[in-house]
Predict the 3D structure of the following.
Amino acid sequence: MVNKVENEDLVHFLLSCNRYDTIRKSLMDNIISKYSDFDSLNAVTKLFLYKSIDAFICKKLGYFIYEAFMLRNESIDTGIVN
């Protein structure tokens, strides 16, 4: 079986990288609590909303990015980098 290599771009980072599933779930739960149909949107629309000026989304997304970089740094520090 061949493993599919994904591009590590913004879309991958924000929407699908397995490394960040736990913190992404928290981000999604928070956004869905305010915008109930968010989960049903396609990736392009989600990215568009992430670029919005909505303070709620900006704050939640900023926290996700902070947590993701902290997790990434821990992985680098302990030598567990994919």
